[in-house]
Amino acid sequence: MCRPISAYRHAAKLTQRNVAELLDLSEVYVRKIEKGHSNPGRETMIKFSKLFNEKPEKLFPDLFCIHDDKKCI
């Protein structure tokens, strides 16, 4: 599952390497986060949020999903 952050990165005309350097992260970690193979911690989410000027909920919607599993039996 790809996350919206790759679209934000492309719109900003940045490579994964650029993002990694700007956020002081490894390029491999940025790639894993984008593909959904790794979940960022709070600090890393904040870094992405500041870089793209967007709320973490928009950048990582899969991590903020709220499921209402209340069912009538």
Keywords for this structure?
73 residues, mainly alpha, 434 Repressor (Amino-terminal Domain), 53% helix
State the CATH architecture. Orthogonal Bundle
Q: Radius of gyration from the CA trace? A: 14 Å
Show unreliable segments.
none
Number of domains: 1
How do the helices and strands follow one another from N- to C-terminus? HHHHH
Outline: globular
The overall average pLDDT, rounded, is: 90
Helix content: 40-55%
- Strand tally is 0
Question: Helical segment tally?
Answer: 5
CATH superfamily (homologous) name: lambda repressor-like DNA-binding domains
Name of the level-1 CATH class: Mainly Alpha
CATH topology name: 434 Repressor (Amino-terminal Domain)
Strand composition percent: under 5%
* Largest sheet, strands/sense/barrel: none
- Please state the structural category: mainly alpha
In whole angstroms, the N-to-C terminal distance is 33 Å
Note down, in words, how this protein is organized.
- The mean pLDDT is 90.
- Helices cover 53% and strands 0% of the residues.
- Helix 2 packs across helix 3.
- The protein contains 5 helices and no strands.
- The chain is globular and about 45 Å long.
- It has one domain: 434 Repressor (Amino-terminal Domain) (Orthogonal Bundle), CATH 1.10.260.40.
- With 73 residues, it is an all-alpha fold.
